[in-house]
Each structure stands twice: as C-alpha cells, then as structure tokens.
Amino acid sequence: MLQDDDLEEALRIIINNVMLALYHEGITHINLGGLMRIIGVPNKKAAQYDNDMVIMDANFVKHIETFNSPRPPDQPLH
Q1: From CA 65, how far away is CA 60, in angstroms rounded?
Q2: 47 is a domain residue
Q3: Is 73 domain-assigned?
Q4: What's the whole-model pTM score?
C-alpha cells in the first residue's frame, strides 16, 4: 500500500501529465471539476469545482517539466 507521501507524489505526476497532454492537444482552459473526474474523484465532490477553471499559459510546459523532475529524497513535498 502506498504511503501518503507516495500517493500524493503519484497523483501530482498523473495530474501534471493529463494537463500536459491536454495542453499539447491545444486545450488551454480546463474545468477543474472535469479534471477531478478524469483522475477518479467522485462526481459529488468534483461537482463542487465545476465553476473553477485552470488556465495554462505559455509558461505552463516549463512549469510542469520542473515539477515532473525527480526531487531529492530529502526535499519535502510541501
């Protein structure tokens, strides 16, 4: 079973890669509730975020590549 830190890291990478894939398809505005549903968040909880948008600008790819780089083992996630 995954530790909380491992699960958080895995989810972060999944979300970043889904967003990156959408960006490369030309999608620059993502509905947060929809993104939550893609990664398996129950509809009732995701629906609370249906009015929130994530906007990916020109710096998005650089930002995601930095986040997807392996972190040193002693670096905290927060």
Answers
A1: 9
A2: yes
A3: no
A4: 0.68
Long-range contacts of the stretch 24-27 (C-beta < 8 A, 24+): 27/56
Question: What does the alpha-carbon distance between residue 44 and residue 61 come to, in Å, rounded to a whole number?
Answer: 30
Integer Cα distance of 65 and 32 in angstroms: 20
Residue-range definition of the domain harbouring residue 53: 4-68
- Taking a C-beta distance cutoff of 8 angstroms, is the pair 54, 19 a contact? yes
Q: Is residue 27 part of a domain?
A: yes
For residue range 16-73, what is the model confidence (pLDDT) as tens digits? 888 888 898 999 999 999 998 988 899 999 999 999 999 998 788 788 777 666 666 6
Axis crossing angle, helix 60-68 with helix 4-24, rounded to the nearest 10? 150
Q: Give the total number of structural domains in the chain.
A: 1
